[in-house]
Records
---
Amino acid sequence: MNTNRCSIWVFGDYRNYFQNRVTLQLLSKANDLAPKLAAEVCAVLFGHDLDEYVYEYIAHGARKIYVVEHPCLKNYSIEKYTDLMVRLALDYQPEAILVGATSFGKEFAPRVAKRLGTGLTADCIGLEITEKGQLLQIAPSFGGNLVAEIITPKQRPQMATVRPGVFQEIPHDNQLRGEVVRIPIPENLPDDRVRLIAYERQEQREQRIEEATVVVCGGRGMGSRKKFKKLFDLAELLSAEVGGTRPVVYAGWLDSDALVGQAGKHVKPQILLSFGISGAIQHTAAISDADFIIAVNKNPNATMMKMADVAVVADANQLCTALIKGLKERIQTR
Amino acid sequence: MVSELPWDEKTGTLRRNLAEGMMNPACANALEAALEIKRQHGADITVITMGPPMAEEVLYEALALGADEGVLLTDPRMAGGDTYATSYTLARTIEKECPDFDLVLCGCHTSDSETSQVGPQLAEELDVPGVAYVERLELENRTARMHRLSDNFIETLEMDLPGLVTVATRANVPRYPALGGLDIAFGRPKIKLLDSSQLGLESDTIGLRGSPTKILNVYSPTAAKKNTVLKGTPKKIVDQIFINYGDKISGAIGKDLKTHHHDKQS
């Protein structure tokens, strides 16, 4: 079954809106990379009643889709999906496999890589093709102070996970055509040793920080948990969402859902207000798509200040207070 | 409980906070989960970490908190391993030191690279069922029941032991060691040191050599752009912001703003 054509695969993660978006973003990136390898962009989809996604992925640039459909695949299963992906990869020998760094993807990709005996780079912030035709996996490393360029020189496929929001999807194009390869479910698919007893969809918050037009981010420089709360008052005036850095989440000033960072949410607001954040790469990698950044920090040399369009040298907490007051005076109520 | 310490292959040193003996925060949650199981059901806890000799401090801390045995994998040949090589090394250690284990608990990620890959890969290596990012864990006879949030789905899962879980950082609040406990732990060393030859591991399966991924280049990101610097009293700065960027802010938030202070009178 081994095809000679080189291919880049994207795992079709579709269970909720953001999982589906990251799949589209990876299809876009794969289309970017494919010409340099003369590769075909393929999506791989497991589940039940998948037509909606098959056509969506074709319209977003998948030239071929491997589909395994069966009622027993309706709920995501780490063991069944891993087994299927490994079989398909052994049969079709893709050059690279890209997986969204969703909760599921971060559990699924390491298992697939392990069974295929290959490398995997987590949470890439960039993917390129080297002169030698290798997948260059760019990821934050060493405590977030450095960026590492990583390759998988010998083993194939080359594998990487990417957080939602890192790459831009290409617009939907109904004129695009793709080949659908339907693969029957193997007879000896393993039973799930981890049994799903119950599940429910968590109520989604009204506005998601990933989609917010204005984002207010705070770091340890806010001073205390109590002072950090002011950012929520500011955010309310700005119709903004509040995010924070890892230390703030560890300190319990903010829910871990609101972590803005390599291992949390990636944001791309029109305006980002950054308070008391020094700017470790794990955070800055997740905000680099912001159109306009106003950073407040006592230290004018902080990395975050260098990234900002407007660098305000001031105490983050005092400036937040002044900005709240300034906004209240200026917002027209009529 | 398994902890993976980041070992900087460039300098041969650990990150400073860890060298000072700080446990990887997520691993503290895994240890807490283990101690809670011990309290409820009784258990023999072995803590395992990989790193330079000074990493034993982390094991002493775990012993002071109530773990029973500590194993330190220390061998320069193990250094620089990616998650593939690390999970291989940890799996062979567990098989040798704890062949009858019931449950492996891992921190859900390390604070340096946050790949979250070692736990799932360790489950593959050990060929046991595994669940990542567990927030609540209950044991009944030989069954583990787990609760977690995964991609906006609140899931309840079950598996039969032996198994592996990675513990979410919001699962619990790790206890701190009493100073007396630390002294006791230091007074009675129960740390076993192992290197690759004692584990019978070939050097091309571990560390840098056993890693499918290679680091080509490491650099410090320089993202400096031409920016405007504002200084002064908070009030003056805020006035400047509204004068220069009021329209931009107004457009983004969808609210009209009086950009100049004297607009108040008009």
---
Amino acid sequence: MPRVSLPFLIVLPLLILLLAASGCASWVAPHSVRQAGSVVDYLYPDAKEPPQLEPTVTRLHPPVQVGIAFVPGACGCEGLVEAEKQKLLQRVKDSFAQYPYIGNIEIIPSTYLRTHGGFTNLQQVASMFNIEAIALVSYDQVQFNDTNALSVLYWTVVGAYVIRGDRYDVQTMVDAAVFDVSSRKLLFRAPGTSQVKGNASMASFGQRSRAARDLGYQQAVDQLIPQLHVELDTFKERIKSDAGFKVENKPGYSGAGDFGGFGLLLVLALCGVGYARRARG
Amino acid sequence: MRAVRGADWPWVTIVVATVCVIFVAMPESLIQPLSGDRHAILHGELWRLWSAHLTHFSLRHALIDSVTLLLIGTMAESIFGSRRIALFLLIGAPLISSGIVLASPALLDYRGASAIAIMLATMVGLSLWQSRPTSRLTLGILAAILLAKIGFDATGMSLTLTDLPDHVRVAWQAHLLAVALGALYDFLPTRMQQTDAITGLLRADVPHPQ
């Protein structure tokens, strides 16, 4: 049996410890993770120059049929799973159900929107879902990962499970831009932001940071909804004086239960028959 | 005659007509949540099924409808009794509104009391038809004129003295539904009385067959 020298017995555990400690950083997520879906990337994928919009009158026909969708992520790094997206969009939809001039609001699944699809894709979706305007929700979420001083205790192995030595800072921005599909005009937009910070042990970092990212979207949408209401009210006032917009009624929009003077005469005649009969009786 | 009952005061008609006039004097922002907005009804604002009949597009519209309702309602209450008229207005009004929502997707906002007035007129007309055979020719002519008016309204050739806004057309569908509901009443009460299925509220108002 070969002999092992004493210095080697001391150095080897230290070397392992050093490697383990230095490796901690690589066991957790990278220092920052970004998820983004940009409305500009989606609508103007190959634009080298600013889009030229011809001055046209945007005609709105209340109640306007509206679609709402998350824009597809440019890099395939979708921020949320589809079910979560639908839940968030449902909350936006519910908050706008009270307006009589907004018709049905369709939640459009992300699978219907192609990456860099542009207005061509938007027109297809609008035809498919029978919508006149669409609210495109773009998002940009960055997660910063750091360690704190407690992370040194990860070397105890148990510490990796109980010590919260990792920090995350999730910053989220969502932005809803409402477009008139036929004129391609931006009607109004509103942002929502959030910041979620927290600590986690190395073992629970993945789970906690994922929950923080979801929470970030929820808080940003919570902030977005009242902003959208404010912008909608502002837009409503703006179109009254803006020559670029015209509100028109749909054919057969309103109906009056109107008997008219002619009907009044008919009722008088009917009453005459009734009272004449009674007088004779 | 199917039902004859004197009423001291046509209080139901007076209340409904008064509310119509009060509503038209109120600002549009307060009236809008009460009109028969199709989309809002489909989103659960079911009170509009009733309140739509009490809202109007203009003062003249409201006045003509209210006077018409007052005339025919007074006669209807003297024939059928106030409680029964109240009950049938409560049932008939939402049925007419629901019928519009179901049958006329293009009709997005409905206002006016004429449909309930026509429903009462049909009930009165059929009652007179049965009780007074000698008046049937006159009643038949009046019925034909009413149906012709609805037909004209349907083709857009409305004969009206009211000042409806440009985008508003006469909702002939509501009038046709009202005629159908009024006519349906002529069949319903007998069955309901025979089977004793009607509520005590209504029974108290039903006269004995003569």
